């Protein structure tokens, strides 16, 4: 009796595993198809310069227009891409699409010299054998100024291999591309590496901003990052700013750049272009 139950439990467990595996495989094949059938799209979230209230650039964020499920967020599929090796191909698509968009924005008007488009690069993509060659080839194909491109990497890239990271970043930055450290403060902080890496921007992670009004620890950490950025001559972007009260605290610390729902959600290209066209300072009741 007990034995039979045990066996059933094991069978049930195995079935669960099988379900999980088949779900994963289904997602993987759907993602393959998504790439072939152009179901991916970039959304754009403005970055704001506080002193002028103007848009100084944007971050491109990947979306998947699933034929049945509608718009799917990266949190759901980036881990699957990373696990399957598809991330390299999709990551390459992101860079191509980002450069194509820059060319388009330039033709449409509204995109000013000095503005930058930030693209997220996954650790696996960055460390891939052909990353530098791929970026170089894409820049040859799309004649956009390399200094309008910013690549967002996370601290996890750096800790894998500091020397390789420096080499890759140095090559790309000598071409004019700049780098931001994304989700800064959440990984193994690479404070000692900061001065060796050609990084121009630190992005304070959303997790420090979310409760910044109530949580003294988060305030201390955010202020420390802003101060460190200033001392090292780096720009600091606060990401995930949703409310005026959060902005006020960060502004008092001297944080110059912002990205968050308070200013705008990530939006499709046409809407982003419309925001650029307005060309007025973002309304701030400062
Ligand atoms: P991330 O690079 O840190 O991007 C910021 C995330 O915060 C975005 O989520 C954005 O929509 C969200 N966000 C911005 N402002 C606010 C706010 O005020 N409140 C809240 N609650 N959230 C805000 P999203 O688009 O879902 O992307 C999640 C993550 O997926 C990104 O985090 C990035 O790590 C990854 N990702 C997105 N696009 C790409 C891509 O093209 N390539 C790679 N490798 N990763 C990507
Ligand atoms: Mg990012
Ligand atoms: Mg981030
Ligand atoms: Mg994040």
TrEMBL record:
Signal peptide extent: none
UniProt superkingdom: Bacteria
Protein name, entry field: EAL domain-containing protein
Residues of the full protein shown: 567 to 852 of 852
Domain EAL: 24-280
């Amino acid at each position: 009796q007990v034995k039979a139950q045990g066996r059933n439990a094991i069978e049930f467990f195995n079935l669960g595993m099988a379900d999980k595996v088949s779900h994963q495989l289904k997602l993987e094949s759907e993602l393959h198809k998504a790439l072939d059938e152009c179901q991916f799209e970039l959304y754009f979230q403005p970055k704001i310069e506080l002193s002028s209230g103007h848009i100084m650039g944007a971050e491109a964020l990947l979306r998947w227009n699933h034929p049945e499920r509608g718009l799917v967020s990266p949190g759901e599929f980036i881990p699957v891409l990373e696990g399957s090796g598809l991330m390299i191909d999709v990551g390459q698509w992101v860079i191509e699409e980002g450069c194509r968009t820059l060319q388009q924005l330039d033709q449409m008007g509204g995109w000013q010299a000095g503005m930058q488009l930030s693209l997220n690069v996954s650790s696996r993509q960055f460390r891939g054998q052909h990353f530098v060659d791929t970026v170089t080839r894409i820049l040859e194909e799309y004649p956009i100024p390399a200094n309008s491109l910013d690549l967002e990497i996370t601290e996890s890239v750096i800790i894998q291999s500091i020397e390789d990271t420096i080499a890759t970043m140095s090559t790309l930055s000598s071409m004019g591309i700049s780098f931001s450290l994304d989700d800064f403060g959440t990984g193994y902080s690479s404070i000692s590496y900061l001065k060796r890496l050609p990084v121009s921007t630190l992005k304070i992670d959303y997790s420090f901003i979310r409760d910044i009004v109530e949580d003294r620890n988060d305030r201390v950490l955010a202020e420390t990052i802003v101060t460190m950025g200033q001392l090292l001559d780096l720009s600091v972007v606060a990401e995930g700013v949703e409310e005026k009260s959060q902005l006020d605290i960060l502004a008092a610390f001297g944080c110059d750049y912002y990205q968050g729902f308070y200013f705008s959600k990530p939006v499709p290209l046409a809407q982003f272009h419309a925001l650029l066209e307005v060309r007025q300072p973002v309304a701030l009741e400062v």
